[in-house]
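Worked example

This section walks through a single chain of length 536. The input is the sequence exactly as stored; nothing has been trimmed or padded.
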Amino acid sequence: MGTPSLSPWAVLALALMLVGLGAPCVVSGQPNFIVILADDVGWGDLGANWAETKETPHLDQLAAEGTRFVDFHSAASTCSPSRASLLTGRLGVRNGVTHNFAIASLGGLPLNETTLAEVLREAGYSTGAIGKWHLGHHGRHHPNSRGFDYYFGIPYSHDMGCTDTPGYNLPPCPPCPRHGTAAREARKDCYTEVALPLFENVTIVQQPVELGSLATRYAEEAARFIQRASDSGRPYFLYLALAHMHVPLTPPLPPAPGRGIYGASLSEMDALVGRIKEVADSHGKGNTLLWFAGDNGPWAQKCELAGRLGPLVGAWQRQRGGSSAKQTTWEGGHRVPALVYWPGRVPAGRTSHALLSVLDIFPTLVALAGAALPPNRRFDGLDVSPVLFGWSDVGHKVLLHPNSGAAGKVGEIEALRLAQYKVFYTTGGAMACDGSTGPAERHQPPLIFNLDRDLQEQEPLDVASGEYQAVLPAVSRAYAQALRDIAADNVSVADYSQDPAAIPCCNVQHVGCRCRGAHGPTLGPHVEKRTPRLCL
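Given that input, the structure is written out below as tokens.
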């Protein structure tokens, strides 16, 4: 578990940055940080990870100029918990976010949890969030109340509201209604009543969102934020939470032959990341750390609209039905692509096998900024700056994988990693492309896989084998210690209650909450109760 102190490694790293010792790029003061989080991206969606993928030349170049992490994991296998853990350095069982928030959610990431943006802003940073939030949008849960000076984006996933030109989905969803109840068409798993909103700070600037131009708008707003921060002379922290991949946005051009809709969307995401790198480099190459990662594995039930697992197929589960990707604790659910780029600081062309997590982003960036972790709580993330700088390739000894919807109580820890061993006390499969779900199964003694020789998670160790008997005591001790540590911590509880008044709506008089002008009303971030905004 992490500690609220500045590590000796971070002190040395910061000292080296401040004097520019032995590096081709001199860094003056605190570095800038860009964290790019892709949505539902598969480990195999990165060409540098999986040779069959051809749509990511910019990301592959980023890998060639930085360090690629091949054993990097999300903190949960679904959206809100993973994002909450990135911004707090704590698992959902500590920070209270164990499953996804809804469009009518009154709550969000608990207010007593301190975000990375709040720590960095206190340390002198300009802070911006662009893209998907999904940590509560009502009242004080809005990004502007959680440490971000600037916000531009969608408060949840881009399929959680109707649009005039719907993106791809399976099954397809209809466009927003225009002329009252006669035009409405209810479909399972589709949001047909309220249009998807786009916020700039606390103002809805478009409802419904034009999905076809969203990637361009995100790139433009990111560039403007970086320019403003650079002009101010302050270091900046930009959290760019992409709409890609989830389900594909409408591609700007017809997909090329053999590439398909998903491939076209992947190319669009890749180009967006390339543009952000270009902008960051233009404002002082060597001053900015860029960290790219995924929030969880691909959404397998979307079939050809879902990402690529590469070798992480979860074969044991797939033989029993269901998906082994998003919402599961199989490797395909939480092992995600990850790259770090920082010219002159992070070694180029390096591949790291250290066991790392999105949880590590918080303590690492806090340390590199010369700040301190918030007191009176425990952290699951580590300051992994020695790994980033190539001084070490040692990450977590133990990494916990919470239940994320496929089996077991959400948020509880019933799978973990100890060195090369993957341990399951509960297994289950999420909905697969064929509609099947794998049954939840309890395992006592636990299933144990050796990932060094079985990355596909096909054959658990024989409980009678010497290897199983040798590793089981260490697994049991690590699991028991982790549960004791959590029980002794200051933990938070999220409010998952819902009220139609919490649904963002810029025009309650118009069907679908449609905005006719460029700007809708300002929604004050500190107002806890508002006029009902669900347009029926």
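What to look for: The chain is about 25% helix and 15% strand.
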